[in-house]
Write a structure and sequence with these properties.
Layout (H helix, E strand, L loop, with lengths): L21 E4 L4 E4 L2 E2 H7 L2 H10 L5 H13 L5 H8 L7 H12 L13 H24 L12 H10 L5 H14 L6 H10 L5 H12 L7 H12 L2 H13 L17 H17 L3 H17 L6 H11 L6 H22 L27
Antiparallel strand pairs: 1-2, 2-3
Bound molecules: acetyl coenzyme *A.
Acetyl coenzyme *A binds next to loops.
Length: 377
């Protein structure tokens, strides 16, 4: 399709605003949060430290991170009526639909945090603490697990595993999830963060912004891709069939989920780190099936299309090795990205400018109005 002159479809390469939160060097394959390389953060840091970094612009001291951990523990519980509403939602619902609805509903109980500006840092911490509880409350109901308790002694990563699986993770599992969470915590103006900032730029509240973001993350071209990666692996079955299945899909112009990126022209650094965690966890569990299949798929897609893996390629294999069902992968992504969404909303409030692009009109302008009785079809 020929684009009208001056239109940047998908806002590609449009610089929409200034931000101090996150920098992506798509040519060097670097990702920076508030000045720190993601590889250093993945090696040495935790999700709690990264959330603090995104919100406050500096790494926390030991006591600041301990306070934040304690605060998350205090903020996990949902209002009992909301927990009951979540348990009464249709059990066949998509967990992302439940999450979107519950985030929106939570705002009704927390009027202070929904005032744009003043209460927003409290709201950011509240939402980050509560998202795993929302997902866990729904999932436990549909599979018949007992209700959640707050478990304030657990990190966000360990609490997430407990909320979804009703068991504590091993140290290796907890660290794998912790790394996955911190790697997903922000990614500049990705579609869901942009949606959050558009909502906030109207001076709407933080919970509305996060509701917009959850709805945007749900799409398979964004957060929904990791679920589809695991569906592909199920379809392929064994590494020997990877070549033919992938080539067949490419010949039909189907997209292979977990590959390609709007910004990265080389390998997404998050994929590099998660590939290693997928291998490590696979070895520890004596199950290298996902890792071997993914390596084979990578080889074929790179050879045939020159595409590199993105963050979604290996994350699903890590969640699957823990026994987490596929339809919880995108909600897990949300429970990490909420730190970035809210950091961006806080930044938007500090430098507010209504986000409102224009469209190049390509429709008619001089049609003659016909009264309804005269219209023939
Ligand atoms: N599989 C096959 N072909 C692909 C893929 C893919 N995953 N990604 C891009 N291509 C091809 C396109 O078909 C297109 O080819 P063409 O020029 O012959 O038509 C070319 O590469 C460019 O693709 P665009 O869609 O223009 O690139 P864009 O920057 O818009 O796409 C996107 C980025 C949406 C992520 C794309 O790569 C994609 O659909 N990937 C699969 C979904 C996915 O993994 N999403 C997760 C992204 S990371 C995240 O959101 C957390």
């Amino acid at each position: 399709m020929v684009e009208p002159a001056g239109v940047q479809r998908g806002l590609e390469d449009v610089v929409a605003l200034e931000s101090r939160i996150c920098f992506i060097d798509g040519r060097q394959g670097r990702l920076i949060y508030q000045g720190y390389d993601i590889r250093d953060l993945a090696e040495h840091s935790t999700f709690e430290e990264v959330a603090y970094l995104l919100w406050y612009g500096r790494l926390p001291t030991a006591s600041q991170v301990a306070d934040l951990r304690q605060r998350f523990g205090q903020l996990r519980a949902l209002p009992p009526t909301l927990a009951e509403q979540i348990r009464s939602m249709p059990l066949t619902s998509s967990p992302m639909d439940v999450l979107r609805t519950a985030v929106s509903a939570l705002a009704l109980y927390e009027p202070e945090e929904t005032k744009p500006g003043s209460g927003s840092i409290g709201g950011a911490q509240r939402l980050t603490a509560a998202l795993p509880t929302i997902i866990g409350t729904f999932h436990r109901q549909r599979v018949g697990l007992p209700p959640l308790t707050d478990r304030p002694e657990l990190s966000q990563a360990a609490y997430l595993v407990y909320a979804l699986l009703d068991r504590d993770p091993t140290d290796l599992e907890a660290r794998a999830i912790d790394v996955a969470l911190l790697l997903h915590a922000d990614h500049e103006l990705n579609a869901s963060t942009f949606a959050a900032r558009v909502t906030a730029s109207t001076l709407s509240d933080l919970y509305s912004a996060v509701t917009s973001a959850v709805g945007t993350l749900k799409g398979p071209l964004h957060g929904g891709a990791n679920e589809r990666v695991m569906e592909l692996l199920d379809e392929i079955g064994t590494p020997e069939l990877a070549e033919s299945v992938v080539r067949d899909k490419l010949s039909k112009h189907e997209r292979i989920m977990g590959f390609g990126h709007r910004v990265y022209k080389v390998e997404d650094p998050r994929a590099t780190i998660l590939r290693e965690w997928s291998r490590k966890l696979g070895e520890a569990k004596g199950n290298m099936r996902y890792y071997e299949l993914l390596r084979k798929v990578e080889e074929v897609v790179h050879r045939e299309k020159g595409l590199y893996p993105n963050v979604d390629l290996y994350s699903g294999s890590i969640y699957s090795l823990l026994g987490i069902p596929h339809d919880l992968f995108t909600p897990i992504f949300a429970s990490s990205r909420v730190a970035g969404w809210t950091a961006h909303v806080l930044e938007e409030y500090q430098d507010l400018r209504l986000i409102r692009p224009t469209a190049k009109y390509v429709g008619a302008t001089d049609l003659r109005y016909e009264p309804v009785a005269e219209r023939t079809g």
